Amino acid sequence: MEQTLNTHTLISFLNTWDIPNDERVPQDKFTCQASLEKYVANYMVITRNDLLEDVVKFRSDLRRQVEFGGVDKLNHWIKLRRIGCWAILHNGMPELNFGPDSVTENVNEESWDSIIDMILVLVLRLLKEERFHRVKICPDCKYAFYDESRSSTKKWCSMTKKSPEGRACGTIAKVKRFREKQKN
């Protein structure tokens, strides 16, 4: 398997926790170590397995980071994994900062050997490329998505129901707001 990570890998990882539209009850795809290992086998080659609890905590912290901003959770994992950099906020946007004691400024997935390391390196690469702010979580359905709009101001996962699982969160929110205005 060719070892390439991209934004799809990150989005897929974040969406291993989701709220299906038909039930509206949160579901975690990482229910046991075997489910985690099956997921990893589909996306990357690793030489070291992380504990399920650590991966679930990392995913939860990363989802919180994407949804609410800040850099504290991300820096916690950077420090824990001994990566020679840290995230800072610059004009409200997270950026990557390399200190004088950094081993390297080359952030690439070949340097790390577990799922947490791989995803963390992908996040750091997106920070370095100034694209991490495009990773978003829909405020309605909590689905993670990559905002490809020119202005990078997309709020909802979709305006249309593109598949049987789709929800059209943007349209639902617009209709709801319109009806509220009509009441007043």
Spatially, the strands of the biggest sheet line up as: 1-2
Domain module tally: 1
Q: What summary fits the major beta sheet?
A: 2 strands, antiparallel
Spatial separation of the terminal alpha carbons = 58 Å
**What is the mean predicted local confidence, pLDDT?**
80
Uncertain regions spanning at least 5 consecutive residues: 101-110
User: Helical proportion?
Assistant: 40-55%
The Rg value, from CA coordinates, equals: 18 Å
What would you call the shape? globular
Per DSSP, what share of the residues sits in E-state strands of 2 or more residues?
A: 5-15%
Helix/sheet category:
alpha+beta
Element-level helix/strand string: HEEHHHEEHEEH
The strand count comes to 6
Q: Helical region count? A: 6
Domain Zinc finger CGNR: 134-181
Protein name: CGNR zinc finger protein
Pfam families: zf-CGNR
List keywords for this structure.
184 residues; alpha+beta; two-stranded antiparallel sheet
Characterization of this structure:
This protein is an alpha+beta fold and 184 residues long. It has one domain. The strands form 3 sheets. A two-stranded antiparallel sheet has the order 1-2. The protein has a two-stranded antiparallel sheet with strand order 3-4. A two-stranded antiparallel sheet has the order 5-6. A hairpin with a 2-residue loop joins strand 3 and strand 4. The longest helix has 17 residues. About 5% of the residues have low confidence.
